[in-house]
Design a protein that fits this description.
With about 400 residues, this protein is of the alpha/beta class. It is about 30% helix and about 15% strand. Helix 6 crosses helix 8 and helix 9 runs parallel beside helix 10. The N and C termini lie far apart (about 55 Å).
Length: about 400
């Protein structure tokens, strides 16, 4: 039986929890998988281009209020971060983390020659490529490539080292040879992996090749996904969280992450997202609604991890594909901009609070903020200082690391 790759992939992505697998596939031990160092990185993506100026508000900057006469947040309404800045009033749990030393804020993060397309800029952030180049692999996927090439075995397969809590896998987690795994929760993945739907495909195992791809490759990919599904489901039942997470998408995602962390899975990276922050119109209400979800979910997650002695081993890093323009538009919102801030949350921060100065609103690039920190410096820092990996090979060049972890 010959299988065309395009026909196989029509039924579902190999990297998603919606892929159904034959029950009798043997779970595999992935040779050469990474050995985790006990540190966990949680990436929280603000999809759609979050407005950074209304997130960390420059409360003493007259230019900010001049350019945003209706949209600017009054100083007395913000959550004070010292004399010069205030946090959006909906981000109460982040303010509590700030006060407790569990939050660091890096301003003016971006990259040279910024692109204002959602899709292109997100690809740049996911791949860590220069803006002028198109890469087909992601920075965390290449982390898996590099780490899974060493010695040792891994019960869940290399794909369980990086999990995205979603139906589809982002470019960020796709490597040249290894990929992360996308799932909504371990039980759904396990049930999907036990469907008989692909039994006919499994019968083709042993054929040397199809017209487009060796069947052995497809079988191996299915088998590794089965192995990951088995491993994650069994582990997730060991110590599921009992905390009451918010009944929203982010709350459910972080509840899944928490249960896997508490069950001591060997997952090093979790990837979650929330959106949309594309606030061309009615920004005030939309951003407030999303921030309330983030705040409520992070409040429970941080408290859950602290109560279980895990907070010092967790680092949550946020990003958005770009910020917004300094001036408000005529529709009660803001348009696509450039540089933005990143948040870092955890119990092992070496530097806390505001890590650098606020954006200079008197020195703009055609109405947009200038970046002062290349986001690949952040990636180099996360890889080297937190995940214990060599960043230069993964990012393609050497970037100076930062000191917040």
């Amino acid at each position: 039986m010959l299988i065309k790759r395009r026909d196989f992939l029509k039924t579902g992505s190999l990297a998603t929890a919606s892929l159904w697998m034959p029950k009798f596939l043997k779970a595999v031990e992935y040779p050469g998988a990474l050995t985790p160092n006990g540190k966990v990185l949680v990436i929280l993506q603000f999809s759609g281009g979050n407005d950074g100026l209304n997130t960390v508000v420059p409360v003493r900057n007259d230019i900010y209020y001049k350019e945003r006469p209706r949209l600017g947040i009054k100083r007395e309404e913000t959550l004070a971060l010292g004399d010069e800045a205030g946090l959006h009033p909906a981000l109460t749990s982040l303010k509590n983390l700030y006060d407790d030393g569990g939050l660091a804020i890096l301003n003016s993060v971006g990259y040279p020659n910024p692109d204002r397309s959602h899709f292109r800029s997100m690809d740049i952030w996911h791949s860590a490529s220069p803006a002028s180049e198109y890469w087909q692999s992601g920075w965390l996927g290449r982390y898996l490539d590099a780490q899974c090439s060493g010695g040792g075995n891994r019960k869940g397969g290399c794909s369980s080292a990086a999990l995205e809590i979603d139906d589809t896998l982002s470019l960020a987690l796709k490597g040249e040879n290894a990929k992360g795994l996308a799932l909504q929760n371990p039980k759904k993945l396990f049930e999907a992996a036990r469907s008989p739907y692909f039994t006919a495909y499994a019968e083709a195992h042993g054929a040397t090749q199809s017209d487009e791809m060796p069947v052995d490759y497809l079988y191996k990919t299915m088998a590794e996904t089965i192995s990951s599904a088995d491993y994650l489901f069994e582990q997730s039942r060991r110590k599921p969280t009992v905390a009451a997470y918010p009944d929203n998408e982010l709350g459910k995602s972080l509840k899944t992450v928490a249960s896997l962390i508490l069950s001591d899975t060997d997952t090093a990276v979790y990837y979650v997202s929330i959106g949309s922050f594309d606030t061309h119109i009615n920004q005030g209400a939309q951003q407030k609604r999303l921030f309330e979800q983030i705040s409520s979910a992070m409040e429970v997650f941080s408290r859950d991890m602290k109560a279980n002695g895990k907070w010092n081993d967790i680092l949550v890093a946020t990003f958005s594909e770009f910020g917004r323009r300094v001036s408000q538009n005529a529709s009660g919102g803001t348009d696509h901009g450039t540089a933005n801030q990143m948040f870092f949350m955890g119990g092992a921060l070496k530097q806390k609070g505001l890590l650098n100065s606020l954006p200079d609103l008197a020195d703009l690039d055609d109405g947009d903020l200038k970046f002062r920190v290349d986001f690949r410096q952040v990636y180099a820092t996360l890889l080297n200082n937190w995940l214990g990996a060599s960043p230069e090979a993964i990012l393609g060049e050497k970037f100076e690391t930062l000191k917040f972890v």
